[in-house]
């Protein structure tokens, strides 16, 4: 039964991962953390962080990790394949449809609407991640005992380094990983 649940939910994640990457965070969080409790909020945030350092999309990385955690190696395989196969099916079907209608004005309006949805999903996921990183929860409760004061200057520094100097994100991940090791141990 666990294998079927993994296949069903990760097929669903792959199927509805419109916008890819960060746009899928809300959906993945809803299924893995809220509905099934396969991950804690903290573990989910850690997966997002680790996914930045490993090759592959967030949905695939999280499916492999959760599948392995919930049902071992076979669970990891089933969850990963289920995530990927749904996207492949949709891509093939949509390719033919879009190729046929690529000059349609309505199609252009559709994409404009989808861009706005993707931005909203990314913003929602960003707020959740910021809330967890800074306040230790997803509700934005401002308890001074749970505020992670060290995260604020790191966040501002990373934001500045990326926007002002356009430093390669890999170097930022390595540097902040080392910094985090020393700051939090």
Automatic annotation (TrEMBL):
The chain crosses the membrane at residues 70-97, 109-134, 146-162, 167-184. GO terms for molecular function: chromate transmembrane transporter activity. Keywords: Cell membrane, Membrane, Transmembrane, Transmembrane helix. GO terms for cellular component: plasma membrane. It is a multi-pass membrane protein. Signal peptide: none annotated. Its main location: membrane. It is found in: Cell membrane. Pfam families: Chromate_transp. Belongs to the chromate ion transporter (CHR) (TC 2.A.51) family. This is Chromate transporter. It comes from Enterococcus alcedinis.
